[in-house]
């Protein structure tokens, strides 16, 4: 049994067995509530059997079945009434305990502060952030006085969060700033492509979080459960409430590994890898070194994703390694792209196609990875070519590099800050929220139509900083973001196609063409990626030194 206490009088649990009743009685419970319909799955005990065993053990039993995702207010009211009428303590259960926890949470609307509801359910292992958000539509939950107040609160201590904090402090060292992030470790994620290509050691991309956060910033080491923008507050996963005058949202996106059936069970073995995870990038290089013949698949999901060129970078560096070893002729490289083009900015495609030809890559467009069977070494794709009915194909592999589908975290997707697609809804020039004028967003979770790259965040941080400070001074926005993003495409060891572009695919080169022509492979661009940019990241971007990143001024 896995009994989880919500209050002294109410606990919840995953499915209990008929033989558990004596132990439940011995634990002090007087009643059980089943929130699970009979016959949901094979082997599930019927409520009749549960009730008979419960009554034999001296427990009262009540059947209040609900279907996941279809809990009505009448179900909530009935559950709340049962908690009052049944002798307690009460143990409610369903398949996982989530429906029982949801019913309890919703039954407490208006009776307990939202912070307490989230703290109790979080401690029990149930994320009720979305439930609390839904409750607000009918009966707004009570809001406790904030436990912490700060003039500027930043959610997320990744590239964007630390950079914008540093940019703010570089302009006004006396600002009261709080940053919220649960992580102990900070990663230079652009380096993982180089780890997977045998160029960097993984340890080069990892540092402890604490020393990177500016000394003048208060760090709350916790996750966010809920935004309450109408109350100028953020609720943490442990139930604490943080109040703010201005909020900056940049927690990074979520890699949705579960979006591909079987993937999580085989990552890091059976020839299945991904440079999108710190612990897996070294395995990519191990596989590349060990493969002398066979089929290597590289996948790219539907946009948006973090660094749209990263799946190709892995492919090119792998092809280059096989070319240098003289085994490329025996390796079948397949690029499976859910989209319909190799790269979204056409000016860079000719150079990339030269390398597609060099490595004899087969390009397969409109192929979306849906399942991986590591033991069988097969990958299944949904093929949705325009103008034809979708079909399913299964392909064998010896090695597969997977780029997972990506999305904003649940506490963003299900919040009042999100647009219909689940991304923070901002003005694409000022990066200010379209509805809440004291909220800004940057980095991967906002919905401006730009590439989601570290280079983009480097340009966005100063824009948000100057606009927040302008707002504090009672002025209009003074900085605009032009959509800049950079994708250094590692086409071979020692050469890079340095793609730099903004909104609408406009080319935004940082260097004169005679120095670096971004549409052609360049050794100087490789030196920039391999040697200069990591130093710029650690010692400039995260320190508020805006080398070639100053904000563009808003038109008067």
TrEMBL record:
* Domain (Beta-lactamase hydrolase-like protein phosphatase-like) ranges: 2-110
Identify one Pfam family in the record. BLH_phosphatase
FAD/NAD(P)-binding domain spans which residues?
A: 151-266
Q: State a single Gene Ontology molecular function.
A: FAD binding
Record keywords, A-Z: FAD, Flavoprotein, Oxidoreductase, Quinone, Transit peptide
rRNA-binding recorded as keyword: no
GO terms under biological process: sulfide oxidation, using sulfide:quinone oxidoreductase
Could you tell me which Gene3D superfamilies the record lists for this protein? FAD/NAD(P)-binding domain (3.50.50.60), Protein tyrosine phosphatase superfamily (3.90.190.10)
The cofactors it requires, by name, are: FAD
Q: Does the keyword Oxidoreductase apply?
A: yes
**Name under which the protein is recorded:** Sulfide:quinone oxidoreductase
